[in-house]
From TrEMBL, chain B:
Any Pfam family: BPD_transp_1
Annotated InterPro entries: AA_ABC_transptr_permease_3TM, ArtM/GltK/GlnP/TcyL/YhdX-like, MetI-like, MetI-like_sf
Protein name in the entry: Glutamate transport system permease protein
GO biological processes: amino acid transport
Family: Belongs to the binding-protein-dependent transport system permease family. HisMQ subfamily.
Tree of life domain: Bacteria
Keywords, ordered alphabetically: Amino-acid transport, Cell membrane, Membrane, Transmembrane, Transmembrane helix, Transport
Membrane topology: Multi-pass membrane protein
GO molecular function: transmembrane transporter activity
Stored PROSITE patterns: ABC_TM1 (PS50928)
Length: 251, 222
């Protein structure tokens, strides 16, 4: 889990810029994510954290700069882009499980339709993954029948089913009732231990301290500061970060 | 009452033509309507424009004009024939006009269904690596269909009733045509009239009930 386990980084962003109309949401972002690294992105609302995350699997396009994933510049569209996306898992704040499919089908859809995995094999793997996130007994239910925490764990299993090289988490616990936050964080901590490369937008300091290798503080579309979790939370270098931390620490 | 019994067999034969038209056109309209809506939401501008144009033109043209165009314009002037048998030819010209007409309504119903599917569903599908077509086919359209089963039922009911104007284009011996024909020879008969109304209601009412029931049963819980 230490940095630089491999020679080449998994993600390389160089001078990435992005606008929404007149709004400059990503400003000259330079960021690398190493293989096996767990990166926490933190910062005030509207700072561009989600956008940053979403550019990596190209759910958002960029205006300028370059993003290299696993040695390859992100493809523009088509089959190549679909393939890239299949290698980058994504877990959303609002879970986004396929509402008309059962839990099991949610997990097997990607492998069978994108990878062409045989159904019984995909089923078997889905059950293993659901077991791992503690939802195996709910496999035949529909998403709406599960609690938020359970749905989010299924979403993690769905991402894992593709054997991704990396998983992006965009505020995975923000939509959850407080008592369900930990069950999701526990699964994520387990993934981090197993060496999954993760980029996690979250304000959960406990998770950052336990699982992250690095914290990136983002505001106004810029990376303002980056450091190890301990350093960042106890000894932030910039006024913006200190100001932000004082606000989230009070509640 | 006697007329109804006397002309009953002819009327029944005519009514079967209505049912046959309805069944074929329903299937074709659902298929065509799905293709049209796929065009309308596709990322390719040319397809989107073509879909929008077809839908807006056809949907806003009176059905009788479409039928006339299909019989006179396409068949007589442009020489489009489906069969050497005049009856079959007329039948398929009517099918074509009525299917595409109903398809535009299917398309618009589906489009409003697509609008009920949250953005996150498509995003999650794309994030897993599904292509645009897979996302549409496996995630968006199944949810959209379930959201608009009842409106689709209304489209089918309208289609069934509209088969009675089919004769305008193709001189098919459908029930309404047989009815006018008997009225010409024997004078207006209330029993025949009511008999036909009941026959149509016997088909359309259950469709309304069934689609209403199905809509509830298949509703996607969120
Ligand atoms: N699709 C969009 N169209 C226009 N503006 C957008 C869009 N998505 C995001 N924005 C804007 O871009 C800015 C950055 O948004 P982003 O969601 O990346 O911030 P964030 O750091 O994730 O914030 P939060 O903590 O609230 O999730 C915000 O001002 C937001 O309103
Ligand atoms: Mg966000």
């Amino acid at each position: 889990m230490t940095e630089n386990g491999h020679a080449s980084p998994l993600v390389q962003m160089e001078n990435v810029n992005k606008h929404f109309g007149a709004l400059h949401v990503l400003r000259d972002i330079n960021l690398t994510v190493s293989r096996g690294e767990v990166l926490v992105v933190i910062g005030p609302s509207g700072g561009g954290k989600s956008t940053l995350c979403r550019t990596i699997n190209r759910l958002e396009t960029i205006d300028a700069g370059k993003i290299v994933f696993d040695g390859q510049v992100l493809p523009d569209e088509g089959k190549a882009l679909a393939k890239l996306r299949s290698e980058v898992g994504m877990v959303f704040q609002s879970f986004n499980l396929f509402a008309h499919k059962t839990i099991r089908e949610n997990v097997t859809l990607g492998p069978t339709k994108v990878r062409g995995t045989a159904k019984d094999q995909a089923d078997k793997r889905a059950m293993e993954l659901l077991e791992r996130v503690g939802i195996a007994t709910q496999a035949d239910k529909y998403p709406a029948q599960l609690s938020g925490g359970q749905q989010q764990r299924v979403a993690i299993a769905r991402a894992l089913a593709m054997d991704p090289k990396m998983i992006l988490f965009d505020e995975p616990t923000s939509a959850l009732d407080p008592e369900m936050v930990q069950e999701v964080l526990d699964v994520m901590i387990g993934l981090a231990r197993d060496g999954m490369t993760m980029m996690v937008v979250t304000h959960e300091m406990g998770f950052a301290r336990r699982a992250a290798n690095r914290v990136v503080f983002m505001a106004d579309g810029q990376i303002v500061e980056e450091n190890t979790p301990d350093e960042f939370f106890t000894n932030a270098q910039t006024d913006r970060a200190r100001d932000f931390l004082s606000k989230i620490l009070t509640h | 009452m006697d007329e109804l019994i006397e002309y009953g067999p002819d009327l029944l034969k005519g009514f079967l033509v209505n049912l046959q038209l309805s069944a074929i056109c329903t299937v074709l309209a659902l298929v065509l309507g799905t293709i049209l809506v796929a065009m309308r939401v596709s990322p390719i501008p040319v397809l989107r424009a073509a879909g929008t144009t077809v839908v807006n033109v056809i949907r806003n043209t009176p059905l009788t004009l479409l039928l006339a165009f299909s019989a006179l314009g396409l068949s007589d002037t442009l020489g489009l024939t489906f069969s050497d048998e005049p009856y079959d030819n007329a039948f398929w010209l009517v099918v074509m006009a009525m299917s595409i007409y109903a398809a535009t309504f299917v398309c618009e119903a589906l489009r409003s269904g697509i609008n009920t599917v949250p953005m996150g569903q498509a995003e999650a599908a794309r994030a897993v690596g599904l292509t645009f077509m897979q996302t549409l086919r496996l995630i968006i359209l199944p949810q959209a269909f379930r959201a608009v089963i009842a409106p689709l039922g209304s489209v089918v009911i309208a289609l069934i009733k509209n088969t009675t104007v089919a004769q305008a284009g193709g001189l098919l011996a459908d029930a309404a045509f047989v009815m006018y024909d008997t009225f010409d020879t024997t004078g207006v008969s209330i029993p025949i009239f009511i008999g036909l109304v009941i026959a149509f209601m016997a088909v359309t009412l259950p469709i309304g009930w069934f689609t209403g029931w199905l809509a509830k049963r298949l509703a996607v819980a969120r």
